[in-house]
Write a structure and sequence with these properties.
Length: 169
Amino acid sequence: MLAFILRRAIQAIAVMIVVGCVAFAMFRFAGDPISQMVSIDTSAAQRAEMRKSLGLDDPVLVQFARYFGNAARFQFGVSYQFRQPVADLLKERMPATLELATCATILAMVFGILMGVYSALHRNSLLAKAFQAISLIGISLPTFLIGILLIYLFAVVLGWLPSFGRGET
């Protein structure tokens, strides 16, 4: 059991390193963040000063090492888009994320268990075949498409939920 846990921990670390590498590469080649942060009439000297203050003029390997070192210490710096500490943004959004994940897990477990038990007990019934078709479609479709379809159904067609944000809590 200890070997299994150790192997899973090593795999988790490897996955985090790969995801970190992909995220760094995407950030690096997505464009210049300075252009997002300043207006079009900012001088080249001011842009260079900002680039230097953010460490964007350092070699790629130095930036990469700094990125991983800070991430390992949970120091995520300042968001270029919102100009706020990333830790504050994470704290602000964490309750909604946990609420969504908890509700989704509970709903998936309740409906999944009920549909699975019914399908096992009534194998050849029309409703069991419908449950199997629904679960196959749910597994096959990309998550973002299901999300868009659910937003359309509950926000646009039925009007039960807001189309963005959390709404009133």
